[in-house]
Amino acid sequence: MSGFVSVLRRELSLSLRGGGEMLTLVLFFVIVGAIVPFAVGPDKVLLAGIAPGIVWIAAFLAMLMGLEKLFGPDRADGTLGLYRLADTPLSAVVAAKVIAHWLTAALPLILASPILALLLSMDLPTFWRTLVSLLIGTPALAGFGALGAALTVATRHGGLIAPILIAPLSMPVLIFGVGAISASGGPGQTGVATLLLAALSLMVVALTPFAAALAIDWGED
Amino acid sequence: MSIDTTPKMSWWNRLAHPGQFVILTKPLILPLTALTALLFAAGLWFAFFNSPADYQMGDTVRIMYVHVPTAWLSQFVYATMAVSAIGSLVWRHPMADVSMKTAAPLGAAFTAMALFTGSLWGRPTWGTFWEWDGRMTSTLVLLFIYLGIVALWRAFDDQLRAARVVAVFTLVGAVNIPIIKFSVDWWSTLHQPASVFRPDGPTMPGSILTPLFVMFFAFTFLFITLQLTAMHTEVRRRRIATLERRAARGETR
């Protein structure tokens, strides 16, 4: 347990002192969202309609950005090798990293989402639902992200492959995430989607550390 | 009394040796090819000349004889890959690695073929090449997963290491595919009224069922033949790579 906590603390202090990477990520998230009106036109009704989808896509892309630094630097300086030999199971280390990844790459985005809501002229009830759906759904993205990073950490040029692997797996997260926001499904459907999203998130966060740990362990010699 | 206490190799263990595998399965290739060709000849003859045109869709119904078997294979090949992945992870069976690797591009090809024939069929019957219908969408996602697996294989230099990592992803995908299927179905019924008219169903007459079954077996045997051939090729490719590495190190033997 102490190993788990110290890995978590190490990850958090590394990214907090790492020269404003979190702010850059938030900036990326806001810019991706703000670019959409230039592409589809500043029609407020249209923008409000597709705003939930835009916010989710922006969050999805922003969370892909930080993947390479999840295991890459640790492998380069040998820390990953030590993790494999440590008393703390590798899956616990990965779980700590998933939590740290969510705290540093997802939570800032959720805190910045009011800016996008304002820019995309979301109304207040939709905004609250967006906030809840992001809070529930982004842990699943963090889990899949860790899996993708673990699968590609031993490759020489895995940077582009991780998103390709994760995107199809994350499709249910996007579907239920957006489904939990927009009322187009009729009454009751958003509640169903929220519950399904929560179930998915719990399952992914519970299982991916084991799969990711296997991939890391077997990807090395 | 016999001094030889080494256990006799079972056929399973013998198959684990790549050279033995090639020797044992080599004689199967020719009969399999002949059987596949025969099935295709019969199936295509039934499909083109001995089955009725649909009263609504006309001759376009014949696309089904390619579409349905390839769609079935798109899932069967993934199951093959998942079983190989288990074989690779649990028993470290070397030929399971090879089978997993060679199945991925074949599965991607069959899935792409199912999508392509589906959109060709959709144009005259539904009036559109693409519809975000549940089944089509999950097949598209399956194609993306196949292509991701191919990309992951190619990202590794060491194929033995790649096999274990790909096996993990293949099994994660196998767990995920039902979830994707469910979510996509939920999503497409939410967004789209039931506009997709599927004429097939239990009311298919035997005259259509016969060519469908024959084509079904033809495509399945095509996959088995191609898979075996590709496995032999992969074994040889690895042997060549090993020989080249040895030659580069200056070892003569």
Please mark out the parts of chain B with pLDDT under 50 across 5 or more consecutive residues, or reply none: 193-197
**Could you state the order of secondary-structure elements of chain B as H and E?**
HHHHHHH
The separation of the N and C termini of chain A measures: 27 Å
Question: What pair of chains forms the biggest interface?
Answer: A-B, 33 and 30 residues
Helix proportion of chain A: over 70%
| Rg of chain B (CA only) | 22 Å
Q: Major sheet of chain A: size, sense and barrel closure?
A: none
Structural class of chain A: mainly alpha
**Helical residues, percent of chain B:** over 70%
Number of domains of chain A: 1
Could you say which overall geometry of chain A the principal axes of the C-alpha atoms support? Answer: globular
Low-confidence stretches of chain A: none
Summed over residues and divided by their number, the pLDDT of chain B gives a mean of 83
Number of strands of chain A: 0
Q: What does the radius of gyration of chain A come to?
A: 18 Å
Overall outline of chain B:
globular
Pick out its properties:
heterodimer, A: mainly alpha, 9 helices, globular, B: 253 residues, mainly alpha, 7 helices, 78% helix
Task: Describe this structure as you would to a colleague.
The complex is a heterodimer of chains A (221) and B (253). Chain A is mainly α. In chain A, helix 8 packs antiparallel against helix 9 (189-219). Chain A is built from nine helices and no strands. The two termini of chain A are 27 Å apart. The longest helix of chain A is centred in the C-terminal third of the chain and has 31 residues, at 189-219. Chain A has one domain. Chain B is mainly alpha-helical and 253 residues long. Chain B has one domain (31-195, 206-249). Chain B is 78% helix and 0% strand. Chain B has helices spanning 11-16, 18-49, 64-90, 94-126, 134-155, 159-191, 206-249. In chain B, helix 2 (18-49) runs antiparallel to helix 7 (206-249), helix 3 (64-90) runs antiparallel to helix 4 (94-126) and helix 4 packs parallel to helix 6 (159-191). The two termini of chain B are 38 Å apart. The model of chain B is unreliable at 193-197 (pLDDT under 50). The A-B interface holds A 147, 151-152, 154-158, 161, 164-165, 167-169, 171-172, 175-176, 179, 184-185, 189, 196, 200, 207-208, 211, 214-215, 218-221 and B 141-142, 144-145, 147-148, 151-152, 155-157, 161, 164-165, 168-169, 171-173, 175-176, 179-180, 182-184, 186-187, 190-191.
